[in-house]
Amino acid sequence: QVQLVESGGGLVQAGGSLRLSCAASGIIFSIRTSGWYRQAPGKPRELVASITSVGSTNYADSVKGRFTISRDKDKNTVYLQMNSLRPEDTAAYYCNALVLTRDGARTYWGEGTRVTVSS
User: How confident is the model over 28-87, as pLDDT tens digits?
Assistant: First the structure.
């Protein structure tokens, strides 16, 4: 069984920074893609950033230039460095990964970490 555990959320003032981490555990052959999503109250979940196994990245327009996604393959961990945070970045942030195990490829989700940006 694969588990994704997020950490690093919290309360920060506008203009500040946070670094989120998502560690995958279990019997993992490889992680194909990883991503960070967020969901604000009353809004649908949206993609924030994603990264492929070869390092290609994709960002939502709203975070380009402020957020950076990266990964450590040896640690099966993906990070989201968030700079110049704005109140509209307030949301629950979820990690997502397409993981290859002995049972095949499957998408897993973490339980989320809360980010609150005060004005």
Answer: 888 899 999 999 999 999 999 999 999 999 999 999 999 999 999 999 999 999 999 999
From residue 13, alpha-carbon distances to 19, 47, 55, 89, 111 in Å are 14, 23, 31, 11, 24
What is the Cα gyration radius of the chain? 14
Q: Please provide the DSSP assignment of 32-98 as one string.
A: EEEEEEEE-TTS--EEEEEEETT--EEE-TTTTTTEEEEEETTTTEEEEEE-S--GGG-EEEEEEEE
Spatial distance between the Cα atoms of 24 and 30, rounded to a whole number of angstroms: 11
Torsion of CA 40, 11, 59, 69, to 10 degrees: -140
